[in-house]
Amino acid sequence: MKITSITTQRNDNNRVNISIDGKYSFSLYSFQLVDLGVKVGREYDEQELKLLEKESQFGKIYNRALKYCLIRLHSTFEVRNYLYKKTKPTLNRKGQMIPGIESDMVQLVLNRLQEKGYLDDEKFTDYWIENRALNRGVSRRKLIFELKNKGVSSEIINKVIDKTWRNNKDEINKVILKKRCKYIDEKKFISYLLRLGFEYDEIKVALLENND
User: Fold this and answer.
1) Please, are residues 19 and 2 in contact by the beta-carbon 8 Å criterion?
2) Whole-model pTM over 0.85
3) Which of 35, 129, 199, 208 to pair with 98, CA 20 to 30 A apart?
4) Residue 50 within a domain
5) What is the DSSP string of 30-51?
6) Inter-helix orientation angle 200-211/168-179, to 10°
7) Residues 202, 153 within the same domain
8) Which residues have a Cβ under 8 Å from the Cβ of 190 and sit 6 or more positions away?
9) Is the dihedral angle over the CA atoms 202, 207, 209, 210 positive or is it negative?
10) Rounded to 5 degrees, what are φ and ψ at 40?
11) 96-150: pLDDT as tens digits
């Protein structure tokens, strides 16, 4: 079986259609042509074509995952969940059931994203800590809880938070400055601050300092 033509897609200049023996077979991204050595006139057996078709699927899902990562930094756990949803069959506009991606594709895409530096839990943790409620205030405990829910390991959280964390005193003062006017009852305000993850003793000290 021989590749008889390679043509650029109308809707995506970065992707090309591959025809085998005069009939469309699959598509690839332009960078994959070079990486895989695909060119007109080259012959493949059935097993080799199956591998190329898998590369076609990989290119599609990798590109989607890359766009997802470029919206903002994500944890590995978040991207894995995003990709896992792609393994489920879906209905197209015509009501036809379209099979999902192969399950082993998830780890392949994750590996490539990590190799290219688009997926790094340490960078994600640093980003999350530095940008989370920067002006409104957030407790160290709440940050740790959020990061664990994002699937980040305790080892990475502790390493990054010790390096980049602002401090609870400044954070609680931000909250008091913005929210105190909404709470006439101090007990209710204390309860609110406790729900944000601040310790009772540091809340009492901060309230006293802000009364001066």
Assistant:
1) no
2) no
3) 35
4) no
5) HHHHHHHT--TT-B--HHHHHH
6) 60
7) yes
8) 200, 203, 204, 207
9) positive
10) -60, 135
11) 777 777 888 899 999 999 999 999 999 999 999 888 866 678 888 999 999 999 9
Position 171 scores a pLDDT of 86
Range of the domain at 161: 121-211
Distances (CA, A) of 16 to 5, 64, 179, 199: 10, 17, 56, 58
Burial class (CB in 10 A: 0-12, 13-18, 19+), 54: middle
**Residue 20: both structure tokens together:** 């085998």
| Same domain flag for 67 and 15 | no
Q: What is the pLDDT of residue 133?
A: 66
**Dihedral Cα 81, 85, 87, 93, nearest 10 deg:** -160
Question: Which of 9, 30, 71 minimizes the C-alpha distance to 17?
Answer: 9
For residue 23, give both structure tokens.
Answer: 């009939």
The pair phi, psi for residue 13, each rounded to 5°, is: -70, -15
**What dihedral angle (degrees, nearest 10) is formed by the CA atoms of 183, 189, 193, 196?**
-60
- Burial (CB count <10 Å: 0-12, 13-18, 19+), residue 59: buried
Contact by Cβ (8 Å): 137, 156: no
**Phi, psi angles (nearest 5°) of residue 18:** -110, 125
Number of domains the chain contains:
3
